[in-house]
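At this stage, I needed to go through a protein sequence along with its fold in token form, as given directly below:
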Amino acid sequence: MEIIGNIIKGAINLKDALTPSVNPVEAQQKVLKSLLETAKNTQFGEHYNFQNILESENITETFSKTIPYYDYNEINKKWWSKLHDGEENVTWPGTPNYFALSSGTTGKTSKKIPVTDAMLSAIKQAGIDQVTALSNFDLPAEFFTKEAMMLGSSTDLAEKDDHLEGEISGITASNIPSWFKGFYKPGEDIAKIDDWDKRVETIAKRAKQWDIGALSGIPSWMELMLKEVIDYHNLENIHDIWPNLQVYTSGGVAFGPYKKSFNALLGKPVTVIDTYLASEGFLAFQARPETTAMQLVTNGGIYFEFVPFKPEYINQDGSLKDNAPSITLKDVELEQDYVLIISTVSGAWRYLIGDTIEFTDIEKAEIKITGRTKFFLNTVGSQLSVNKLDDAIRYLEEEFNTTIPEYTLCAKRFDDGFYHSWYLGSENLNEDNTKIVEALDGYLKTANKNYKVARSKALEGVKVSVVKPEVFADWSGANKKKGGQVKMERVMGEDKFKEWEAFAN
């Protein structure tokens, strides 16, 4: 098997050496032109006169001035809903064979996001590019002969009219290349089990049959699966059963909040590689070990724009104001949060995906996810983004020598004023509540000047409740669905938070 591993590793290294380097700015210009050319005769393309945009002196500028921002609700109401009525050539030529169902972090109602064959090809190519980038990591040849566990949503897609529906991880897993099926675990039979608890229980029962070298999936659900395997076989850690596990490919959310609790399930360190696969496409992946940042996929089926993440450009519901300025890749700056806008080969146009990002390396087009537009906590001027909240959780973990893989909070009005009311998910945070409150409040004052100013005015302080991490998973199961792409809300509105408190208590 080592000979085979050396052959595979050599092929990957050779492909990487022969692949020309990509100029991200030039690649993005080509992508935009290709998108416009392909979709110019669609209903959307004719409505916004794509041909005129293509003939203009500055395509990128004319494009941004001609087409408004769309969030899911707007583009679905005005355009994608036509697809469900049987119309063709709406925002992309033909009709999509798949729709990705995504409740994301918002609620029970699933979004239905078109996934075209062109998008599936773009996702596959980005996956190949990510595998090629493994040549940059110091992985032994034997790693390339081991099996890969992909923990996503069910691949048993629902047939509806002339298309199939399911979460994006289920759609992509049902379309994996034939050459990869021998490495893919848990295998097609288990991957089709729709009930997440039953699927994980089946994985635990069969775990000894596999030689897992890599894991892939959202951290919160991956942790619960690993715990199930460890408990079922009465193990000390996951390496007792999968000794050759060397790589974990995280995705969908930032890995940082889960790092400490995830590492507690391991017997030895693994290489963590971040990816950014959303229902709307494969946006970025970590391409080198010197950084945890991810490289935007600039030569695929996605064109990126960036809106500075500032309160004056953001509506209360997280949507963008009409006058919010967008810039292209050539004009971005470091140390600035941006709202990410995408146009894709699935027929999304100037689409607000809901995430905020920050560039860590402009030349390499490398980013990190900093939060969600809807999770920007600014009720009383505190201006806290999710990355700042994550940093506060990391501080508490170190301060109290604990793990806090989950949390949520709300700016809530009490009898004596506004407080940030936090719920922390932890198995072993047993400190006096007053100490936790003082530590959290003190850190936020030090780390964020806007929070410190808010604390001197309308914000009275923080309140903290500690619950078991399983409560967060149960909440997701009760309100959405366990597993797959489902993510926990980090910041809630007061109405949703009332439901959460009743559930948690």
Remarks:
- Residues 1-374 form a domain with the Rossmann fold fold (CATH 3.40.50.12780).
- The chain has two domains: 1-374, 377-504.
- Residues 1-11 have pLDDT under 50 and may be disordered.
